[in-house]
Amino acid sequence: MKTLARQRETIEILERLEKLRPDSVRRWGKMSSHQMVCHLIDACRMMTGEKQVSRATGLAQQTIVKWMALYLPLPWPAGIITSPEIDQLIEGRKPIDFASDIRDLETLVKAIPAQSKDFQRTHPIFGRMSQSAWLRWAYLHTDHHLRQFGV
Asked: How far apart are CA 110 and CA 14, in angstroms?
């Protein structure tokens, strides 16, 4: 199972980010590649506690759906609705400079694995998650959006 807990998978994500361009064409969804970069920045900031996101969850999402999303060896489907605070078409970070935003995202991706081992944050859908679950989620979420743009 891939996770940002391992350096090789963090490097893989960083190499894929290098291939992303402002004019990369999406395969699904509404975001541009630059909006997607800002969405991933917001998601990383949510993970570190820098960005507050409203909860939208229930028992099924915190158990069955979380387990399926994190541990089944299947790619996430297109069209998953996100929280308004990290939706670039609503309240999320607005794209300004692509190169600068890519650098910000790369910095966050590199810093996330260094989070404290007693890391416990609440995911807006999946509820309480351990550091290892968050690092798995961070890899899968980033992979999902990079696949959205063919990288």
From this structure: 8
Q: What is the pLDDT of residues 13-65, one digit of tens each?
A: 999 999 999 999 999 999 999 999 999 999 999 988 889 888 877 777 878 88
Distance CA 66, CA 59 (A): 10
For 98, residues 6+ apart whose C-beta sits below 8 A from its C-beta are 22, 34, 37
DSSP 8-state code for residue 147: H
* 10 phi/psi in degrees, rounded to 5: -65, -45
pLDDT digits (tens, 9 = 90+) for 64-86: 888 999 999 888 989 888 889 99
| In a domain? residue 136 | yes
Spatial neighbors of 24 by CB under 8 A, at least 6 apart, are: 33, 149, 150, 151
Place of tokens 């893989």: 12
Domain interval for residue 134: 7-148
Per the domain annotation, does 2 fall within a domain?
Answer: no
